[in-house]
Amino acid sequence: MKRNDGLKRLLQGKTDYKKMFKSILFSFFMLLIIITVMALWDAQKSGNNSGNKKIDPPDFIPGKYSGVVPVSENRKLEVCIEFKSDATFNLKEQLIDPAAKRKPDLIVDTGTWTLDLISKEVQLKYTSKTARQTTFSILNKSTIQMHRSSQGRQKTDGSTYNLYKINK
Fold first, then answer.
1. Angle at 41 between CA 39 and CA 42, to 5 degrees
2. What is the pLDDT of residue 155?
3. Which pLDDT score is estimated for 55?
4. What stretch of H or E contains 139?
5. What's the pLDDT tens digit per position in 123-156?
6. pLDDT at 14 over 90
7. Are 96 and 78 in contact (CB under 8 A)?
């Protein structure tokens, strides 16, 4: 069979449609197999396989952290939080107001905490307060940054909200 025989047969209307359909179908399946193999190889190479995804744990160690964070221009809040290894917490807050005639009451809250490995944040779930949201970004082994928000208030941020680990 010469090279131009297929073209001549096509022009003369003597084409074998079954062979043509089989070759197109074969080419389609080969292309599909190649695309699948390449996608699997790329996923394995880049490590995006969700079953084998490795997440480095953040530098968070349960314990006591404390610091003073701003509340307003003239007032600050002394914060001491203890993260217990059973995923519970004790949070103590006391307002520091130089204009106050008496020392403000100590506010104590409890609840549970969870560690989000993706965002590297510790999230609090209060036993009594539902509208308040508090998270802590993990900066390093001895420093966390407090982020507070509630309905209608913007989330706090910045180094003035850092709390430092208390070593016993």
1. 65
2. 62
3. 47
4. strand 133-140
5. 999 888 666 778 888 888 889 998 876 555 556 6
6. no
7. yes
Q: Helices (DSSP H) in the chain: which residue ranges?
A: 5-12, 17-46
Distances (CA, A) of 39 to 32, 48, 52: 11, 11, 16
Q: Are 160 and 148 in contact (CB under 8 A)?
A: no
145 or 13, which is more confident: 145
| Angle subtended at Cα 164 by Cα 58 and Cα 74, rounded to the nearest 5 degrees | 130
**Averaged pLDDT for residues 80-99:** 90
Retrieve residue 4's tokens: 């131009």
* DSSP SS3 for 6: helix
For the beta carbon of residue 149, count every other beta carbon within 10 angstroms: 15
Report residue 40 as tokens.
């699997």
Cα maximum dimension of the chain:
108
How many whole angstroms separate alpha carbon 57 and alpha carbon 29?
43
Instruction: For the full predicted model, state whether its pTM sits above 0.70.
Output: no
Task: Say if residue 29 is exposed, middle or buried (CB neighbours under 10 Å; 0-12, 13-18, 19+).
Answer: exposed
E strand intervals along 20-132: 64-70, 76-83, 88-96, 106-116, 121-126
SS3 129: coil
